[in-house]
Amino acid sequence: MKLKAVLQKVKDPRGKQGQDYPLWAILNLIVVGFLCGKQGLMAVYRMGRCLNATQRSRLGFVDGRTPCHATLTETVRVLDPNELVTLLESVALANDVGDARHIAIDGKTMRATKNSKGNAAHVLSAFCCSLQNVVGTKASHSKGMEIPDAFKLLDELDLTDKIITGDAMFCQKKLTEKIVAKGGDYLFPVKKNQKNLLDNIETAFKTPVFPPRKSRQRNEKSAWSDRATHHRRSAGRGRQHPE
C-alpha cells in the first residue's frame, strides 16, 4: 500500500478557504520531513522551501509552492490524531513480511514535549519485531502507570496467534486473561514485587516432592518383588535338612 493512497483517506476538517493545498500533500511533506530527520514543523517548512520544482510536484504541490509554517501548524492542530495513527499503522500491517507473531509493548517518554509544568508526553507503543515497525500506540498517563492504557491498546490489536511481551509491570492477571481471550499468548518476566507468584513458579520448576505416578508404581512393584524374593529364599533355607 502506497503512502499517498493512505494519506488521501484522511478526512479534511478544513474549511474551503483553508484548502490552498491538498491535505494529503501537506501530510506527505511532514512525513517525508520527519523521515529525513527534521525536528519540528519549522524545520519541515524550511526543507519544503529548499526543494526543487520536480520534488515539490512529486510531493503533491503541482503549482510549485509549498505551505508556510503557519499552514503546517494549523493543519496539524485540526486533524484527528487517532484517525491518522490508525491509517499509518495500516501501512505497516499491509507490508507484512515473514512471521509477524511477536509484538512487544512498552512505554516511552517523548523527547522535547515538556510543558510549562515540566510534564512530558508519554506514549505506550506496540512494536512488531519482524516488521520493525510500530503497529499500535496509545497516549499514556505517565511512566509506571501504563497498565490501564495497555488494556485500551490491546483492544485495538488483532492478537490471534500473537505472542505479547513486555516489562514485569504487565504481568497482571486481568491483562493476561485479555490476551488469551483474544487468541494470543504472552511472555512476561516476574520479579520479587510479586513474591507469591515468583515462589510458585520457582517451586514448579524444582524437583517435585512426590515422584510421578508411573515412577511410584515401578518403585512399588520393585519393592514387592524384593520382598517376595526374600521370602522365597528364607523359605528355601528353612526346608533344608541339616547334615
Task: Bin the helical content.
Answer: 40-55%
The rounded distance between the terminal residues' Cα atoms is: 103 Å
The average pLDDT is 80
Number of helices: 10
Q: In this structure, how is the largest beta sheet organized?
A: 5 strands, mixed
CATH superfamily of the largest domain: Ribonuclease H-like superfamily/Ribonuclease H
CATH topology of the largest domain: Nucleotidyltransferase, domain 5
Radius of gyration, taken over Cα atoms and rounded to an integer in Å: 32 Å
How many domains? 2
Give the overall shape, derived from the CA principal axes.
Answer: elongated
Written account of the structure:
The chain is an alpha/beta fold. It has two domains: 77 residues; 105 residues, Nucleotidyltransferase, domain 5. It has ten helices and five strands. The longest helix has 27 residues. The protein is elongated, with a radius of gyration of 32 Å. It starts with a helix and ends with a helix. The model has no long low-confidence stretch (mean pLDDT 80).
Give the structure's gist in a few sentences:
It contains 10 helices and 5 strands, in the order ααααααβββαβαβαα.
